[in-house]
Amino acid sequence: MSKILVTGGTGYIGSHTVVELHNSGYTPVIVDNLSNSNIQILNQIEKIIGVRPEFHQFDLCDEAQTKTFVQENPDITGIIHFAASKAVGESVEKPLKYYHNNFFSLINLLNAYQGKPINFVFSSSCTVYGEPDTLPVTESAPVKKAASPYGNTKQIAEEILEEVAAAYGNYNTIALRYFNPVGAHASALIGELPLGVPQNLLPFITQTAIGKREKLTVFGGDYDTPDGSCIRDYIHVVDLAKAHVAAIRLLEKGNPNGKYDVFNVGTGNGYSVLEAIAAFEKASGQKLNYVVGPRRDGDIIRVWGDVTKSTEQLGWKAELGIDEMMASAWAWERYLQENPIG
Ligand code: NAD
Ligand code: WQD
After folding, report:
1. What pLDDT is stored for residue 50 in this prediction?
2. Cα 297 to chain center, whole Å?
3. What are the residue boundaries of the NAD(P)-binding domain, all occurrences included (predicted)?
4. CATH number of the CATH domain containing 156
5. Which of 46, 75, 134, 207 is most deeply packed, by most CB within 10 A?
6. 116 Rama sector, left if φ>0, alpha if ψ -120 to 50, beta otherwise
7. Helix (H) or strand (E) segment spanning residue 236
8. Which domain holds residue 166?
9. Whole-angstrom Cα distance, residue 261 to residue 184?
């Protein structure tokens, strides 16, 4: 079966995608520099799928090493490019780190494949929509000025892919715009492994419930939403992983929309922070210690995706709901307590 390069494959979304690629008959090959993941994740993946995926540790910003890897692996037919730096707040403090890592890795990879037919799936984000004018937001909604250097790397990367796909004949590309990925694999053997204090809601909730954090602060309770807290389209990471397999399949079949395409990957449903907390409490049987505090700078008030295009043209639809997201995230946090990683 086809060999698919998964850059960032020991990371959160990458590790789940490696599992789903294997389950769908593909042979995933991982490249990761372990800058934001742990080598133990390879053992965890092996426990789930029964084989140890091929792993190469290097930095994709190293042009020579990237070229050598591509030359030595001519049987790779597709790439899922997760490798990037992703912390929004850090990107404001260290924009050059983000522009360096997220662009050089992308450009080195594309360069190394010049002249070779390649299917390329890119990790983009609903952050490109900013605060949408209409909801649910469709793929044709305008891209708004990025609120952070991180967001800007996703917008510019989409433009790079579109231009590169149009200029050369060999790149077949899809950008997947993820909404808010949460949850963990049903085995509880892989999940999100935040370094330090989590910036995202779900790991903060589970770390509070397990006692690693004292309390969660809900960022703002006075927004113009039914309960005053912000609304997001949370998507189970296993569903998200499956969307990548669907994207690779579409590219292999030939995408009638052309050499560059974009899809929303969400559930189409919005949940407020307070609803997410209630769903967590129900799924875990734990009372969460939280307070409603001030707003966080730069937060979007409400966003959820229109998933008509992904349903009809990608042939993919989210299957898991908020209860499974919360229960799996909680099972993973409890697993980590017994079996620390890192
Ligand atoms: P993650 O940090 O868990 O995974 C990224 C992986 O890439 C890590 O294992 C890291 O070590 C590796 N990496 C980073 N730079 C590298 C380089 N130069 N060379 C080799 N490896 C490198 O992040 P994630 O949550 O799994 O996100 C994966 C992708 O999805 C990223 O591109 C991210 O921007 C995008 N995304 C994430 C979210 C989210 O909320 N998690 C939402 C939208 C988009
Ligand atoms: C979700 C909701 C917070 C923490 C970020 C990036 C985005 C994308 C996904 C990569 C918001 C609230 C959070 C807390 C809270 N990443 N919250 N207390 O901000 O929607 O998106 O991750 O592409 O680009 O910006 O995700 O998980 O930080 O927040 O109340 O301690 O939870 O205000 O409403 P966000 P998040």
Report:
1. 98
2. 22
3. 5-327
4. 3.40.50.720
5. 207
6. beta
7. strand 234-236
8. 3-183+236-266
9. 28
Query: Do the domain assignments include residue 22?
Result: yes
Count up the domains in the chain and report the number.
Answer: 1
pLDDT at 342: 84
CA of 240 to the centre of ligand 1 (A): 14
Query: Given the structure tokens 């492994």, which residue do they identify?
Result: 193
Best residue among 6, 10, 36 to mutate for probing ligand 1, ranked by most atoms within 8 Å of CB: 36
Q: What are the backbone dihedrals phi and psi of residue 5, each rounded to the nearest 5 degrees, phi first?
A: -80, 125
The pLDDT value given to residue 1: 76
**Atom in ligand 2 nearest the alpha carbon of residue 218:** 30
Q: Look at residue 320 and tell me if it is in a domain.
A: no
Question: What residues are paired with 81 via a beta bridge?
Answer: 7, 122
Decide: helix, strand or coil at residue 216: strand
**312 inside domain:** no
Q: From the alpha carbon of 151, which atom of ligand 2 is closest?
A: 24
Q: Residue 201 C-alpha to ligand 2 middle, in angstroms?
A: 6
Q: Is residue 157 part of a domain?
A: yes
- Residue 189 is classified by DSSP as S
Res 116: pLDDT: 98
Q: Give CA–CA dist 210/336, Å, rounded.
A: 10
In which element (H, E) is residue 261 found? strand 260-265
- Mean pLDDT in each 10-residue stretch from start to end of the chain (342 residues)? 96 99 98 98 98 99 98 98 97 98 98 98 98 98 96 98 98 98 98 95 98 98 98 99 98 98 98 98 97 97 98 98 98 98 90
